[in-house]
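Example record

The entry below shows one chain as it appears in the dataset: sequence first, then structure tokens.
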Amino acid sequence: LPAKLLANRPDLNASVATLRATNANVGVAEGAFYPSVSLTGNFGYASESLSDIAKGGSRAFSFGPLALSLPILDAGRNYATALLHRYNSTPHHAVTHAALLAELLASCGPGSVIRPPFFCDYGYNIRIGRGVFLNFNCVLLDVTTIEIGDQTQIGPAVQIYAADHPRNPEDRRSGLENGHPVRIGANVWIG
């Protein structure tokens, strides 16, 4: 398809505006972290579904004859990986680590401690309450929201998955992924 034709599609214009806003929110300092979008197809048609391409949980979309590869989520994952590297390689210090957690997570309540090493996919989907403690080597796969309530304590090597995959092997091989929010209440012990 000629680029000029694609530029006139209102659904793609809305998607490009959403991608630009999402990209600006990522706040990535290095050019290698910025996502790219590529469009290919045999013929085009207007699709309301394309207006939400930045909101989906997977990186590949297909709408009839139009195939879209969207590595936008790679930018958030790369940004989190860089912050986690700093977090996990810095000697544990409450002030230093609190600043890194504030940058990585959607929220982290006062008095909360996450002992390194700590691992997550994006960080921006994680909300930690007040006085929460996560011991060494915890993994939070946050493809969607993970909320941990006030005063909750989580033992070493606990893994919390908001990510899920299809049970059907053919669907799973296609790379499909979805997520289910995880909400852990206050004063919970997981060990």
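Notes for this example: The longest helix spans residues 72-89. The helical segments are 3-7, 10-26, 72-89, 94-104, 169-173.
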